[in-house]
Amino acid sequence: MMKKILLSIIVLLTLSGPVFGEINVVTSTSDLAYWVNAMGGDLVKVNSIASPNADIHFVEVRPSYMAKIAKANIVFKVGLELDKWMDQLIDGSRNDKLTIIDCSKYIKPLEVPTFKADARYGDIHPRGNPHYWIGPQNVEPILKSILEGLKYVDAENAVFYRSRMDSLISHISIDLENIRPKIQFLKGMEIVYYHDSWPYFNEYTGLIAAGFIEPYPGIPPSPSHVKELTEMIKKRGIKVIAMEPYFDKRIPQKIAEDTGAKVVTLYPSIGGKDKNESYIDWLEGNVNVLLGGLK
Predict the structure, then answer these.
(1) Whole-angstrom Cα distance, residue 25 to residue 95?
(2) For the sheet containing 74-77, what is the strand order?
(3) DSSP state letter for 156
(4) Phi/psi at 217 (nearest 5 deg)?
(5) How do the pLDDT tens digits run along the chain, 295 residues long?
(6) DSSP 97
(7) How far is Cα 27 from Cα 217, in angstroms, rounded to an integer?
(8) Which of 245, 177, 253 is nearest to 213 (CA)?
(9) H or E stretch including 256?
(10) What is the DSSP-derived secondary structure letter of residue 100?
């Protein structure tokens, strides 16, 4: 009888995956950590470097981060030159057995410069805008990169990872359909952003970026730029100025006071508002904030 019970337990564990994590994973962002955990389940132990409320362009290179990577089997990074600090951490870890996966592999980048950019144009990324994870259309391309990485370091469980990915895509598709009526209200609406983080979100929702607080990415606004932006907002009746939680609110608030627009906070990463939120919680939360501001 005892043998039958033990055999049943072994079969169950084989179908559901091991109870204890086997693959040590480090991700540059909380978003990638979310998807690796969702796909890997109990087969992975995941650490992410950047806080969900951090400006991912600027993350301090710390020995403690290098120590995490030194113990890792695989690293997942955003790529498109957004998380360049990861390269320093990887070099400092001296982990010569590390597998490195750039999750931008299957992304179709937006806003690829057609000119030779220099410092005058701010933090322009030569391979395109790197904030691709914010657009729901890029969930599947991200998952494809994660699948490739996990299969590479753990080929024995390739079928498990593939089935988890297929299930994730199916569930996310249903969730997106459920909130589509809300998203449709955003189509064609003009808003002003602080930073150019949201083109993939705009592509998916139909929102229009009418302007930016920053004249170029990473460049503080001059008084003349603020004046032009204020006049444009008044003329076009723009209702919302959207910004990330880590930017200074003083200039957006001043523009809002002068124009009647409303400043709202959008969270670019899962876990930014609530550490326990799901992907669809995060997405719908941002949609709700925008709808509230556009009323």
Answers:
(1) 13
(2) 44-48, 23-27, 74-77, 99-102
(3) G
(4) -55, 125
(5) 433 333 333 333 333 444 445 899 999 999 999 999 999 999 999 999 999 998 999 899 999 999 999 999 999 999 999 999 999 999 999 999 999 999 999 999 999 888 776 666 566 777 899 999 999 999 999 999 999 999 999 999 999 999 999 999 999 999 999 999 999 999 999 999 999 999 999 999 999 999 999 998 888 999 999 999 999 999 999 999 999 999 999 999 999 999 999 999 999 999 999 988 999 999 999 999 999 999 8
(6) T
(7) 24
(8) 253
(9) helix 250-259
(10) E
Task: Give the CA distances from residue 220 to residues 195, 224, 230, 256, in Å, rounded to whole numbers and listed in that order.
Answer: 10, 12, 15, 17
Phi, psi of 273 (to 5 degrees): -95, -40
Length of the chain in residues, anyone? 295
Q: Which two tokens stand for residue 8?
A: 């049943």
Query: What local confidence, expressed as pLDDT, does residue 2 receive?
Result: 35
CA 26 to each of CA 90, 112, 196: distance values in angstroms, whole numbers, following the listed order? 10, 28, 27
The residue type of 74 is: I
Report all structural domains of the chain as residue ranges with CATH numbers, in order of start.
14-177 (3.40.50.1980), 180-294 (3.40.50.1980)
| Amino acid found at 227 | K
- Cα–Cα distance between 28 and 59 in angstroms, integer? 10
Q: How far apart are CA 163 and CA 58, in angstroms?
A: 36
Q: What is the pLDDT of residue 121?
A: 59
What is the number of other CB atoms lying within 10 angstroms of the CB of residue 184?
A: 11
Instruction: Please identify which residue in the block is written with the tokens 């796909």.
Output: 39
Phi and psi (nearest 5°) for 268? -80, -10
Helix axes 139-153, 158-184, angle to 10 degrees: 170
Specify the pLDDT at position 122.
60
Whether the CB-CB separation of 281 and 66 falls below 8 Å is answered with: no
